[in-house]
Write a structure and sequence with these properties.
Layout (H helix, E strand, L loop, with lengths): L1 H8 L2 H7 L2 H26 L3 E3 L1 H15 L3 E7 L4 E4 L1 H17 L5 E10 L2 E8 L9 H14 L2 E4 L8 E5 L4 E2 L3
Parallel strand pairs: 2-4
Antiparallel strand pairs: 1-3, 3-8, 4-5, 5-7, 6-7
């Protein structure tokens, strides 16, 4: 905003002699874009949201689970060029419960892979476990996972292996910023 006020305070003749007109237009466009970004970020902050780094969030959850669930080996792959706005604690709870639910589908032990998918509509998380699906799954834990996802605005979709398999996709809310 100070740059814009500076340009408005000096005469057009003196600006033309200092800065080419095309450069002035580029600077003003940049100022306008920056102001839009700041307004959008302040709106998200007022709603209790922040930019979520999915790689960092998933890595933190994997570290947490390593101590709490030593029978589950979790690996994170992929990445996204989009940043997602959301309530990091809610989204983190959904991801943690999703990993636990997928691991429970193969008996609570084994290898779980979390892949961050960079899709046009925004990033998604594909979470899958290797192994044969278990005969029974803790219905209460599954309900808690579904409730957490609903509360965070995260959609749960079956992966390519279909419903009731050892994999799922979390479609994150559409609050995406392109600033990455």
């Amino acid at each position: 905003m100070e740059i814009l006020q500076f340009f408005l305070s000096i005469s057009i003749g003196s600006v033309k002699s200092i800065i080419p007109l095309a450069t002035m237009v580029e600077i003003l466009d940049w100022c306008e874009a920056s102001q839009r970004d700041l307004l959008a970020e302040s709106k998200h902050a007022a709603e209790g949201e922040q930019v979520i780094d999915l790689q960092l969030l998933c890595d933190d959850i994997v570290h947490e689970l390593r101590g709490a669930k030593p029978g589950i080996a979790v690996h994170v792959h992929g990445g996204s060029s989009h940043a997602v706005f959301g309530r990091v604690l809610l989204v983190g709870e959904v991801v943690r419960r999703a990993i636990e639910a997928v691991a429970a589908r193969v008996g609570g032990e084994g290898h779980v892979t979390v892949t961050i998918l960079d899709e046009t509509a925004g990033p998604s998380l594909w979470i899958r476990a290797s192994g044969q699906p278990a005969q029974t799954v803790d219905a209460v834990a599954l309900e808690r996972f579904r409730d957490a996802a609903m509360g965070a605005g995260v959609a749960i979709l079956p992966d390519a292996t279909g419903p009731n398999s050892a994999g799922l996709v979390l479609r994150l809310p559409g609050r995406i910023c392109t600033g990455g």
